[in-house]
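Hey, can you fold this one?
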Amino acid sequence: QVQPVESGGGLVQAGGSLRLSCTAPENEFRSNHIGWYRQAPDKAREMIATISTGGITTYFLDSVKGRFTISRDNTMAYLQMSSLKCEDTAVYYCRLGLNQFGSWGQGTQVTVSS
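Sure. Predicted structure:
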């Protein structure tokens, strides 16, 4: 099973921005919907944004609407995060495919300081 690879996490001050990237081999990447999830300490993993194979359909969790955007091409997906809040601190995961056969990346840490 192909595993996507995330990058772009780090430490940022509240109000700042970060862009996360996710990639996988093109033959797998282009045929799958992509999801971004996050898991904060002692909390369940939650879906925060998704994008369809063609990049036409997107979904955002209410708490990130207006602050996060998602985009993709055939080999990369991006999560642009702006106006970051302390409560956005979490490990962020990319998922290749949104059904039961989807595969997870290793995750990238995002820490937002006050």
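The mean pLDDT is 96. Let me know if you want another pass with a different chain boundary.
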